[in-house]
Queue: 3 jobs
Job 1
Amino acid sequence: MEKVVLLYSGGLDTSVMIPWLKENYNCEVIALCADLGQKEELTGLEEKALKTGASKLYIENLTSEFITDYIYPTLKAGAVYEGRYLLGTSFARPLIAKRAVEIAQKEGATAIAHGATGKGNDQVRFELSIMALDPTLKIISPWKDPLWTLHSREDCIAYAEAHSIPISQSKKRIYSEDRNIWHISHEGGVLEDPSNEAPDDIFTISNTLEKAPDSAEYIEITFEKGVPVSLNGKNLSPVDFLDELNRIGGIHAIGQTDMVENRLVGIKSRGVYETPGGTILYAAHKLLEELVLDRDTTRFKETLAIRYAELVYNGQWFCPLREAIDAFVDVTQKNVTGSVRLKLYKGNIVPAGTKASKSLYLEDLASFSDTDLYDQKDASGFIKLFGLPMKVNGLVEKHSSRKS
């Protein structure tokens, strides 16, 4: 009997897949749940997996690795997909796939199965990662399998009920949700119609704007070489740091994003994301970079950030180009050390002071006063040379208009 490692979250799709795989592939199913900080969602998971037919369940605590090896590089790169999405699901998938490959090799499994649909991005992220890390492993993707006869979430709910599989989804709250320490995403249900406002009850880890406090809160974040190390003067582990920042940001309704994005497969989809701590970190990191990065490096880094975000979103984490961009980014981060103070108020992040030991901002140079470093008379010659192509173009146009 073949062994198959199933990427298992305990959600609707993967709960259904344990008995389905056994029925259709006559295999032993070893379930893997990656603990990426999804909190209470892990409660009772082992009992549920074994009851529904798994031979064993690995619950792997990967939260710290997730933050240091996946979140922090993406944060330092400043990568944001389509200007708004902070990639919370995207960079979690390669880590899950990496651990699945390791367990498959340990258990002697011949295949890895996943519950991603054939219309989404996660199928690509999982499968590209598995292909890169162990191309000898087979990949089972039930949603694309001819034997799979469940064509909607309603069908999956009906299958679960028929097989006495406990699920948290209902036809009333049918959202597809993915949670980890960085974010929680919400898709499906009433959100499939972009003309519908996201209902208040969708928000899980953050207040609505109306429920956020009527008074602001100040926080201070300290970075070393682009990595956050302390919050409000207290050094914290990466997990404790992000947990606390999520708590504070959630109180003030920070990091709620409602967007229609372009999936890799060519479909537009709507997602509502809650990323309270992550949104604060991106804002603080950018403010600190404004002080320490020169203009040319900043501009070039911004162009690479777009490409980096595309690589992560498209499931190409384990590719040479991402590693090469990381090498560039690490050089840019050598002086990104300092502290950023922020004011949080009803979804807003307001700068409240930034300090860096190697700041390129010189007060006397930035002021209106004359300094030894800058003679204002030099600007006249600079402007004449800088504007020379425009002046030549203007002369040519003027001469042409006289002829006509």
Note: The two ends are 87 Å apart (CA to CA).
Job 2
Amino acid sequence: MATVAQRYSHIPPRPPLWFTLAWVGGFGAIAGFLGAQGQGVLMLPYLLAGIVVAVALALLSVCVLKTRALAGSVCAVAMLVPGWAMIGLGYGVFITVIGFIIGRMSIWLSSGDYRLNQPPYASTGEVLWFYTFRFICGLIFLFLISPIIILIPLSFNVEPYFSFTDGMLSLEPGAYSLRWYADIFRNGMAAPDAVAGWWSDMWNNAQWVRSVRNSFFIGICATLLATGLGTLAAIGLSRSEMPCRRPIMALLISPMIVPLVIIASGMFFMFSDVGIAKTYVGLIVAHAVLGTPFVIITVTATLVGFDQSLTQAAANMGAGPLRTFFKVQMPLILPGVISGALFAFITSFDELVVVLQLASAEQRTIPRRMFSGIREQISPTILAVATILVLISVMLLTAVELLRHRSERLRGISAG
């Protein structure tokens, strides 16, 4: 019969109290440093205050509260009230989050739960590197995404500034407004009398709305063209009897490698000769060329796990090539096709260099309009448009990720 020590050997040992206080104090020092940077005051008092407050909350959590949920809630409330009273609501919310993290972190460390996802033989250095590596990855992610995160609250600024005001930092309701989002729809447009006339004038005359219409029209048409061409190319290149597959693949994905300035200049001279420069057709073809490599790569990756015996079985049952493609092959590679189409649409929606050379004033897209706004008239309306573009990109990338998971499940079923 197993001994008590063997039965509970998977439970990590509890570290000493000084271990928990040291790590929580270090976290408090980081929070104090960030608070000093936000307030623009001397750093040392805030560092010491952060350490003292963090250690006090850790002692309260470990010695009195003893549960993670209760410690997080109590520490959050304990930080909210004095922070709101002494500094303001904005920083009060910030230190409330810090208090919540300190409470839960204290219980997590003191109970030894930080070793639960580690093998029992892992040394102290290995556990430290495990969390250090993830902390570094988190800092890199925060560094990459922070410019995007800052744009979103700035787009609600009631003042025509590209910086946070004191009212915004204090979370005053009057410091926030939707005026820049409303400006998207009334830019360059006179106030009409009727609702129907307002909608017609807005759709046809507002500069930003016209740019949105052009971006969606060009992007959708270019995506359809790129998806069709890219899917056919990927299916052809996936066949073993296809000659010169590697050189052809390199040629088809070259628009991803060649600088856009060179591609745009070449397209401008070629499209001028055939008479489609400065037209919607020219822009659609150019964006389709830029989006086709993304479709080829995603569909080719999906076809790697495709069982070719399925098409052979369909042919043995009397199905023709078209019927086999639409009834057997297409349903299995559809997630990859849709993923490539979404990437092609994002490429067209965000493209600027080609539009600068091939588009006239009538074909001005959202990136071209933002570029002109930055050069000619700086307005926070650009921040509102940028926020909308970020939300659209996030939704599209989320759809791509869901389709990728679905494609993996389908390939696992087909492989089994």
Note: The CA atoms of residues 252 and 293 lie 6 Å apart.
Job 3
Amino acid sequence: MNKEKVICPCKNITRGDIVKSMKKGETSYKSIKKATGAGSKCGKCEKEIRKLIKKIKADAD
């Protein structure tokens, strides 16, 4: 996974930012949105963020 890929262009949030947020305990879209701002402007990236969260959780198991 390319951690430098921007997942939320409106807020310039990368995949790595999402991973860091999850390592700090954020485990839902809503909590990640609040912590990072990802998906909080136009919302077009919500589907991709949710998919990334699901993948990270699956990889952790």
Note: The beta strands are 6-8, 13-14.
